Amino acid sequence: MISHKDPIHILLADDDEDDRNFFSEAIAELKMSNRVTLFKDGKELMEYLNQPEIKTPHILFLDLNMPGKTGFDCLKEIRTNSKFKELSIAIYSTSSSEKDIEETFVGGANIYIKKPNDFSKLKKVIKDVVNINWQFHSSGLNKETFFFSI
Amino acid sequence: MKSLRLYKHAQVFKIALGIAIIVIGYIASVFYSKMQKLDDSVELIATSNQTQLELEKLLSIISNYETSLRSYIITKDESYLKDRFLNRGEIELNIRKLKKLTSHSPEVTKDLDSLKVMFNRRFDLFRETLTIAKAKNIDKNELNTKLLESTAYTNRMREAVYRRINSEAKKLRDLNNTHQFELEDSIISAFLLVILSLLILLLSFNKVNVDIDELKKANDELQFLNLSFNNAEKIAGFGHWKVNLETNTYTFSDNYYRLLGVEPHAFEPNLENATKYIHPDDLEYVMQTHQDSLVNHESTSIVSRFLPENGETKYFRIVGSFTHNSKGQLVKVGVNYDITDLYKKTVELEENNKELQAINDELESFNNIVSHDLQEPLRKIQMFISRLEDDDGGGLSDQGKDYFTKIRTAANRMQTLMMDLVNYTRTIKGDKTFVKTNLNSLLDQILLDLALNIEEKNASVTIGNLPTIQTIPFQIEQLFINLITNSLKYSKEDVAPEISITAEKITEKETYQDIDLTDKKYHKIVVSDNGIGFRQEYAEKIFVLFQRLETDAKYSGTGLGLAICKKIVENHNGCIKVRSKPNVGTQFSIYFPKNA
């Protein structure tokens, strides 16, 4: 469990403005005591993360298909930097192709979420992901539990 | 095999002939020595006869002499005495003759010497008798005494001569016996010799005849083989060539010339004439390969263009390898195939393949568009609808809310359709990697994934003991998901769905499109439900793309699900059949090959 002394810091990198809005609205409706930072592409995300003196956020929701620096690029950069080893990464994508799931699993993502087509489902996903016992989830990491079914 | 037998035959024959010649030689030499001996004995017999004759002649001379003397004594006629010196000379001559005849036998010579002494003494007696008889006063007593003495002496002499004659006669008898025996021996030898020679002659003649027959047969076969080979070359469109690397001579088959558009043996078979027909652009490569092979003695296989007399460019595959001929000389033997048609077809095929690849790529990108780019806006539509509905219609009228429900249904349907389309195209595409799969563990996972839907329908799913088979896992997963969701979808409204998935033994004769489905060759897996079912006459139709039986809105479907199932089973070299009864239920039987 993430310590609730600190407000949970959630990041979302998604080039689709509507999706960013859905996301922040869902979090607002969940009334969780957490902080959300949104990025409109991979470049912006990495610039933020690469600032010195920054406190590592808790969870990153990462879209794969973004212009310029894609989600795959970001995943690779983050996982090669030991500074972010505590950062949990949830892939957040429209695609559910085997290829993408396989690649991100190997690339070191913690969970794979297919973007829901229903707002209530979106809220449930965010709630469930935030409340996951990440330590437990990561230690028992396997391909079956990697794909998060709603 | 046959030649080996012939060869062995010849060896045996040679040995037999050798033995026969030795035997004949032996018998001939025996015969010769016999003849030699026979000759000797004939000579001996002749000598013996002569000896007898001469001896008797001696006696008769003495007798003559005696008679003449007596006649003189009685008649006193001197004419009776006129031959007396002549007779004496004759006896000397006879004895010399006899000595010469019997020179080889010392015993006879000794006898003759004593005979000669006796003869001399006898002549002395003659002279003494004659002296007495010629006297004026014949002393009759003395003459009588002398005559008696002479007669006695003559008798002694006669005895001695006859002794000698008898011994010669005995010798002659012995010789005759031996001669008879040797003569018989020689006849047998000669007869044997003739018979054996005749036998060998006959055997040889027979052997030669048989050999000639076989040789002729072999020759005929060879000629026929040659003819067949020539025809085969003509029909199959290849020609062969030989290069004797020691004598540097070239041999080209008839069809080799024909392939170059000329009559057989139209040109002198040599390298220069052969290379004239090679396409100038390929010449260097062909020659280089050939020369290299002459150094390293490795087989070659190349394709080259040729320019036959009729002008049309041909593609030949040239294959060559090295061997030794019967004289132990190194020979490169090769074959030229006319592969022009094949080459053109291959090129055509390659082009078609490229085109197909391009179409496949397009299909792939179409797939991506459907699975990603088209879903994106659709998902957003669905999101916005859900937002609106959550907001309690956002101040919409009841009719407006109703419309939104319809929009949502349509959008959901569109999403399902797109997913099904993607799944269907995925079953068509290549990527077929078979993995050993335990169907029980696969179905456990599927039931977990479908848990919500199953719970929603209050359904019960029974899974029997299923086999482990070779599958393309994601496809088989799709197959069972489709069949189970199908059963859930077409369930009766008032009855809880009961679905069972079991493996069954094939006990009755079952066929599918003339293929016998035997238990030995196929696994049979049955998925059955207690749903609404359908009339058996639609059994074929339900597997056809976009064919739907139910038009009622509550049974929403795309008409792709079962078509996908069929495709998947076919991808596994199996088949799927269905039996159904309206209001009773449906039973899908899936057959997977056991050895796959």
Distance between the termini of chain A: 20 Å
Q: Work out the helicity level of chain B.
A: 55-70%
Share of helical residues of chain A: 40-55%
The CATH class of chain A turns out to be Alpha Beta
Number of helices of chain B: 14
Extract low-pLDDT stretches of chain B.
Answer: none
- Mean pLDDT over the residues of chain B: 84
Query: Mean pLDDT of chain A, rounded to whole units?
Result: 83
CATH architecture of chain A: 3-Layer(aba) Sandwich
| β-sheet strand percentage of chain A | 15-25%
**Roughly how many Å is the radius of gyration of chain B?**
65 Å
Structural class of chain B: alpha+beta
Structural overview:
The complex is a heterodimer of chains A (150) and B (596). Chain A has 150 residues and is of the alpha/beta class. Chain A has a single domain, classed as 3-Layer(aba) Sandwich (Rossmann fold), CATH 3.40.50. Chain A has helices at residues 17-30, 42-49, 71-79, 98-107, 119-131, 134-139, 143-146, and strands at residues 8-13, 34-39, 59-62, 88-93, 111-114, 147-148. A 6-stranded parallel beta sheet of chain A has the order 2-1-3-4-5-6, sandwiched between helices. In chain A, helix 1 (17-30) links the parallel strand 1 (8-13) and strand 2 (34-39). The two termini of chain A are 20 Å apart. The relative contact order of chain A is 0.16. Chain B has 596 residues and is α+β, with helices and mostly antiparallel strands. Chain B folds into 4 domains: 2-210; 238-338, PAS domain (Beta-Lactamase); 344-429, Helix Hairpins; 430-593, Histidine kinase-like ATPase, C-terminal domain (Heat Shock Protein 90). Helices cover 63% and strands 14% of the residues of chain B. In chain B, the strands form 4 sheets. In chain B, strands 2-1-5-4-3 form a 5-stranded antiparallel beta sheet, sandwiched between helices. A 5-stranded mixed beta sheet of chain B has the order 7-9-12-14-13, covered by helices on one side. Chain B has helices at 2-75, 84-101, 106-134, 140-236, 254-259, 271-275, 280-296, 340-373, 375-390, 398-428, 439-449, 451-457, 473-489, 561-571, and strands spanning 238-244, 249-252, 300-306, 314-324, 330-338, 435-438, 460-463, 468-471, 498-504, 510-512, 515-517, 522-528, 575-581, 585-593. In chain B, helix 2 runs antiparallel to helix 3 (106-134) and helix 13 packs antiparallel against helix 14. Chain A binds chain B through residues 16, 18-19, 22, 65, 94-95, 97-98, 115-120, 122, 144, 149, and chain B through 371-372, 375-376, 378-380, 382-383, 386-387, 390, 415, 445, 449, 474.
